[in-house]
What we know:
This protein is α+β, with helices and mostly antiparallel strands. It is built from three helices and seven strands, in the order E-E-E-H-E-E-E-E-H-H.
Amino acid sequence: MPVAEKPDVQPVSVQARCVRLTAKADNPASLAPAVEIRALSRAADELLIELKAAAVNPSDVKAATGLMAYAVFPRTPGRDYAGVVIDGPAGWIGREVFGSSGDLGIRRDGTHATHLVVEAQALVRKPANLSLAAFASRCQQRIDQLEFPVF
């Protein structure tokens, strides 16, 4: 869906609760995340999502323990999510969406938070017959199934 903005409308700003990783952990048992409040708002080509579910993906642990050398710190981890668009183009407001992967939670703040900002091109509408939790918990598998259905 193309992004069309009204120039006189200011993006919404929210105070999001975010899990933060401040530095690489030596191993999964030594992870010491903090919870921070961070102000989030979107740019013209982005949408603001209120997250309803997020999963822990194996890549979250790999990035937190240094197995993904390109991971940045500090950051909010998390790659898989499902939620509701609360700010962006009118055609997206209120829509249930899901997503995964890209640089989320590794090179930029991810999904282990109450809210998330993503590019409009990255959004996928959630099919009505599946729950938000189902999508977040197995997001990459669901994306693969939608793109490459098995008949």
